[in-house]
Amino acid sequence: MALIVQKYGGTSVGSVERVQAVAKKIKAFARSGDQLVVSVSAMSGETNRMMALAKQLQDKPSLREVDMLLATGEQVTISLLSMALQQIGCDAISYLGSQVRIVTDSEHGKARIKSIDDHRIHNSLDEGKVVIIAGFQGVDEQGHITTLGRGGSDTTAVALAAALKADECQIYTDVDGVYTTDPRIEPNARKMKSVSYEEMLEMASLGSKVLQIRAVEFASKYQVPLRVLSSMIDNPVGTLITSEENIVEQAVISGIAHNKDEAKLSLIGVPDKPGIAFKILKPISEANIEVDMIVQSVSAREGLTNFAFTVHRDDFNQAKSILQTICDNLGAMDVQSDDKVVKVSLVGIGMRSHAGIATQMFEVLHNERINIQMIATSEIKISVVIDEKYLELAVRSLHSAFDLEKG
Ligand code: ASP
Ligand code: MG
């Protein structure tokens, strides 16, 4: 008998009909004799709707109260799913995060799970019930309701799987797996059978929205076999995210990620002295703005240098005005800004043992006359910032140059 943790996302439980469809699937699994723990998100759109309600009352609502509010979304879906299961003769029980003691720290809105008390879950499983647990939420040591950050029910599922030592954690969603790139951009994108934690982590942080980053981190840390699959089709296989050793056919490049949320800021003609990077980035980070890529050019003859970085587009205007002040303070020449850029990244653990991948990537972009504005590399990824109008062209030509459609 296996113990499986399943998670169904907001679209999969977005209406009473969908909840019934999910219940049917769960019943079929339960029949096969496996023990099932199911975690669900709020109905799609609900979390945003509630957030908007809060914003009507306060510009910056208290994070504690926001958590109190948002956690109700998942209370709706767990109880409805449990009812739908009972209605078709499948014994089930629902629990809130606080009831099964998903204990987190007290960082409202982005709490981290510290422990899960699995007693109650095991007792209910032993009574032959499907156990349904609210995703996205927990409780801190003082008893305050917390939430784990947007998309957090993926993390709930993985954390449950780790705590229960489940055989597999299955994330049911509206896509049927992890693709070599975004199929909306490249119709020849191929669904991967498996991908390593490390690559998935890069893809998630580089803009692939399939899984919450923290969920992948958790799975990697506790070696939870994680499968992404569609809740909309019958007998889906999906993509298995696992450790590197378990991947049989390792390609050099696994996938191409892209991120349209980037915006670029440059400070031109800064006196090149020790402390420049610090003086530029300190006020930015003090404003809680996250910086992604950073490029400082080699000093020109006049002892001046250029310093460029990217931020999330939501932070663009604020970062720009901070940089204007910095420009005046440091006596730099100019601030340049561009929010029409995107980041395109090649990801693959095979890069470690293959030289020349970056050159090959740059050649492809050169052949398409795409100018590279910034470059960043790690052991298993190469990212470039380019003009957003070349996004599709870059993704498609790289996908074909690296033979990703073949697998
Ligand atoms: N309902 C929460 C959200 O929309 C959590 C989740 O869907 O995973 O972010
Ligand atoms: Mg989600």
Please give a structural write-up.
The chain has eleven helices and 20 strands. It has 407 residues and is of the alpha/beta class. It has three domains: 3-174, 3-Layer(aba) Sandwich (Carbamate kinase), CATH 3.40.1160.10; 262-338, VC0802-like; 342-401, VC0802-like (2-Layer Sandwich), CATH 3.30.2130. Magnesium ion (MG) is lined by residues 9-10, 41, 151.
Compact overview of the structure:
Helix content is 34%, strand content 26%. The chain has 407 residues and is α/β, with parallel strands linked by helices. The strands form four sheets. It has an eight-stranded mixed beta sheet with strand order 3-6-2-1-9-11-12-10, with helices on both faces.
Distance between the termini: 34 Å
Instruction: Provide the CATH top-level class of the largest domain.
Output: Alpha Beta
Q: How many helices?
A: 11
Mean of residue pLDDT? 93
From the helix content, strand content and strand pairing, which structural class follows? Answer: alpha/beta
Unreliable runs, pLDDT <50, ≥5 residues? Answer: none
- What do we call the CATH topology of the largest domain? Carbamate kinase
- CATH architecture annotation name of the largest domain: 3-Layer(aba) Sandwich
Beta-strand share of residues: 25-35%
Q: Summarize the biggest pleated sheet.
A: 8 strands, mixed
Structure ligands? aspartic acid, magnesium ion
- What is the total number of structural domains? 3
How are the SSEs placed, and which strands pair?
Blueprint: E1 3-8, H1 16-31, E2 35-40, H2 46-57, H3 63-87, E3 92-95, E4 102-104, E5 113-116, H4 119-126, E6 130-134, E7 137-140, E8 145-147, H5 153-164, E9 168-173, E10 194-196, H6 197-205, H7 213-222, E11 226-230, E12 239-242, E13 255-259, E14 262-271, H8 276-286, E15 291-296, E16 304-312, H9 316-330, E17 334-338, E18 341-347, H10 357-367, E19 374-378, E20 381-387, H11 391-401
Parallel strand pairs: 1-2, 1-9, 2-6, 3-6, 4-7, 9-11, 10-12
Antiparallel strand pairs: 4-5, 7-8, 11-12, 13-18, 14-16, 14-17, 15-16, 18-20, 19-20
Helix pairs in contact: 1-3, 2-3, 5-7, 6-7, 8-9
Bound molecules: aspartic acid and magnesium ion (MG).
